[in-house]
Amino acid sequence: MKPDTTLIHSVWDNSSHFITKTDNEKNDIDIDYLLASIFSNGPFYFYVVDFFNREIKYISPGVEEIHGLRPEKTTFQDILDCIHPDDMAFVAKAEETMMKVFYETLGVEKYKKYKMSYCFRFRTKDGSYQMFNHQAILLATDEHGRGAKSLNIHTNISHLTSKNNYQISAIGMFGEPSYLNIDTKDHTLFPNPSQPIFTKREIEIIRLLSLGLTNINIADKLYISFETVRTHRKNILRKSKSKNSGELISKCITNGLI
């Protein structure tokens, strides 16, 4: 059963203050650079969508393995149709909240300095619905500062968690503070800004932990001592208030900690 996507289209249709109404061919940010900063523990694919006409400008081959959709024929609507029908209302509300956060709180000049993150269930190639993390970064704006093109990354995280906190996070890039766990029901309850919770080294260790590496493997990979890895892991668990690595990775993704 396909979801009713009219709700999410209406959100975009009624957001002329945020989404461009003119064609824009310029990409202001290097996509390869952005992909290097994306946390993608699990099968993923990415695509660039042009919000002027809601057409996909490029989509990676991974969409076929994940959704069973041929890249050369996949449309934006095809991707939306894979969203779980029961999650469509949340996805639409998440998009609406994201635009209000930018327009009313962060300011349009900050559009391209943030990565938006939230989770929902997607239909996969075998017909089952699994939990995915959605990350979106604005690539280009028009002459009025409105969003023109977006880089979207969808990562299957069902091996890490099946729970959704039904919140969104605005992850600061280029030195900007982050805003975690924004309530989509009442975006006026805006959280206080937070500086990055983890150091660059700690994020490296979290990424390796999420791949199943042991302390010894991580030490060898990063050319540091076993005891140093142990110390980092203790600090990471303390900072994230997690009891174990599984809870840590789940929190990092669903709460947008990395």
Automatic annotation (TrEMBL):
InterPro entries: PAS, PAS-like_dom_sf, PAS_fold_3, Sig_transdc_resp-reg_C-effctor, Tscrpt_reg_LuxR_C, WH-like_DNA-bd_sf
Superkingdom field: Bacteria
UniProt-listed SMART domains: HTH_LUXR
The PAS domain, residue ranges: 46-100
Residue ranges occupied by any HTH luxR-type domain in the UniProt entry: 191-256
Keyword Amino-acid biosynthesis applies: no
SUPFAM superfamilies recorded: C-terminal effector domain of the bipartite response regulators, PYP-like sensor domain (PAS domain)
One example GO MF annotation: DNA binding
Keyword terms, alphabetized: DNA-binding, Transcription, Transcription regulation
Keyword DNA-binding: yes
One Pfam family here: PAS_3
A biological-process GO annotation: regulation of DNA-templated transcription
Name the record gives this protein: PAS fold-containing protein
Record organism: Pedobacter rhizosphaerae
